[in-house]
Amino acid sequence: MSIRFALLGLLICVMVSPVRSQSLRPALDCGRTAACLPMELALGRGYERIVVRRDSLGDLLRLELRVRGRRPQEAPREHSLVIAGSDETMGCGEFMTPAGVPVLGYSGEGHPIILTSAGELEIMDSLIGVGCPNCAELRTVPGYRVAGRLPTPAWDLWALGYDPRTFGYSDTGALYVPDGAGNCIEVRAVGRFRLAAASACSGLEEVGNFERPVSGLRLQPAEWLFRSANRRHALFLRAGACT
Questions:
Q1: What would the pLDDT profile of 128-165 be if each residue is shown by its tens digit?
Q2: Alpha-carbon distance 203 to 226, whole Å?
Q3: Which residues contact 122 (CB under 8 A, 6 or more apart)?
Q4: Helix (H, G, I), strand (E, B), or coil: what is residue 150?
Q5: Which of 70, 73, 164, 209 is 20 to 30 A removed from 216 (C-alpha atoms)?
Q6: Distances, alpha carbon 105 to alpha carbons 19, 64, 139, in Å
């Protein structure tokens, strides 16, 4: 009888014990996923949900972020996302991993989908931002009115190895970004990234910046204006070095 009650007690303990969320880490790179780009990871609102781990010398060892997200075929819930780094990576509010965070695109709600140690994770949380959601804009010519907004991989593009002069764009709201491995990736504010023809990343002509004014448009530091052949719109870009 005592054995039966012991087994029953053990079963009850298992049933009522809370399920601990699995710790996830961003994947090191895109791996075999072709339509994927490294993007910066930036801290947003909710610092009380960040646990900072330091080594014996007081140097930053890792951040543990409790973020709401959704994995494929699962309901949204809180996940523990663990990011390694150093204090030097915290400039400008970003937490930059050396190679960025592999991103597959955006959900129908516009949430970024990243690759982790356990597969895909849709970030549904303001605690962290992925990429720079409003760093690129389509502008009408003439007039330079905003006709659409596009995400870019980072505010500091050069830190992740990107050169905006190699980008391309469409009049329908796509940004084309070379991934460094010979692929041209189509990026939109909503939807999975897609492989595009190499000619889409045909390069841009810089037509204006802070030191090179454009008639009818006042550009601030870290703002650029580009044109591309056979495009009705111009591409306005915010990008600068994080110092």
A1: 889 998 899 999 999 999 999 999 999 889 988 999 99
A2: 10
A3: 69, 70, 71, 107, 111, 112, 113
A4: strand
A5: 164
A6: 29, 23, 23
